[in-house]
Design a protein that fits this description.
Layout: H1 2-7, H2 13-24, E1 32-36, H3 42-47, E2 53-58, H4 61-73, E3 79-83, H5 86-91, E4 97-103, H6 112-122, E5 123-134, H7 141-153, H8 165-174, E6 177-183, E7 193-200
Parallel strand pairs: 1-2, 1-4, 2-3, 4-5
Antiparallel strand pairs: 5-7, 6-7
Length: about 200
Amino acid sequence: MAPRYAASAIADTAGYERTLARVSTLLAPEHAALEIGCGTGASALRLASRCGRLLATDSSPAMIAMARQRWRAQPSAQLSFAVADAQAALQENAGGYHRVLAFNVLHLVDDLDAVLSAAARALAPGGLLISKTPCVREMNLLVARIAVPIARMLGAAPPVQVFDEAQLLAGMRATGLKPIIVERHGTRRKDFRAFVVARRA
């Protein structure tokens, strides 16, 4: 799926730019940051200059290969890429990150509670989890209850966690993360992607 993903256009470019601008205000040169589920590295390449160090990870070797190819075209000393699933990446340097970035990935992990717990442990005290997540339960019922399960059964889509914003926030609070920013950045129709920033207590 990596080549198809890399070639796909951003559905809401204005909303994406709004998110990147918002994230940029939460990063600083003294920050060590980790991104999980970075895909082909598009967001990491845009945000790396705002950090002291950014390690961008994805479980797909094909995605990381494409990310590194992009990096060679516009190298950044602050940015590096690695193949790792979300939990492995988060457990590698417990307490060592000021920021953990998770864009369009929390609905795809096998165990959301475990990943949120690992994110809390990966953050230094006061560190931020910065996320943007499709809340699948808020989508059209046909999509959430019929289309997604059928696509999973046919192998045409990865496993998808079905939750809404309230459930996502509750999951964060249960793992010691305090949501401090909850926004929607979409500019087209109903926006079901929740932008949530949560602080480690």
